[in-house]
Amino acid sequence: MTEGGGQGANIVDAEQPQQPEVKANRGVLDHRAQVGCISRFQSPIQAFLRPGSWIPWCRNIRYHAERWVLSVNRITVHKKFMEAIQFFVKSDSGILGQEKIMIYNEDEKQGTATIYCFTKGAEWLDVLEVRFSEPSGLLDEEKCVATIRSFSSGFIPTSVPLAPLLSVALFWIPFAGNDPKTRKFNNTVRVNQIRRHMQDAGGLEIKVEAETQGCSCL
Questions:
Q1: How many CB atoms lie within 10 A of CB 42?
Q2: pLDDT tens, 115-170?
Q3: Residue 5 buriedness (CB in 10 A; 0-12 / 13-18 / 19+)
Q4: Residue 178: phi, psi to the nearest 5?
Q5: How far is the C-alpha of 33 from the C-alpha of 108, rounded, in Å?
Q6: What is the spatial distance between Cα 53 and Cα 47, in angstroms, rounded to a whole number?
């Protein structure tokens, strides 16, 4: 801005800086509208049945769970968790930033959240579940226990008709939920990225009390 003559009015320069190009998906936390109709209908069924997690020794390559202990009340931890999800989606970073995210359920009062993570092509479905609780059951307690799970729901992408039924029939196939470029298991990386963001950007001290990749009931 530059100041005018005797009137002292502010005159806006004619040349405005060009705005950076914004991607279509950026800023959208819930991609429900971008998920296909078939996937929107079938994903809750496949997520509930989760045939990809039925066999412990097969699921350990596509399942990851951790139990955290934090010295903060669970309402704060819940908000920090959702802020982490929002960060990855809005910045198109991390694994979550490369997926279509559908918030199936989020209840701050109950301390639960279920998030569907679809690949942008065929819409394979990974499920992210989290539960926050207080060890003593008191809501105002400054301590929280969190259990977070990320797992591949089934062998067939939810965009395929009858995907839940086909995934149930093929539950025994030991497919790997990994990124062929990095050769890292997506579910493990997804949980690690969320935890690190909550620690670094959220300022939380998170102690990983237990973790598994599918061989236990955590």
A1: 26
A2: 999 998 899 999 999 999 988 766 566 889 999 999 999 999 999 999 999 999 99
A3: exposed
A4: -125, 165
A5: 23
A6: 10
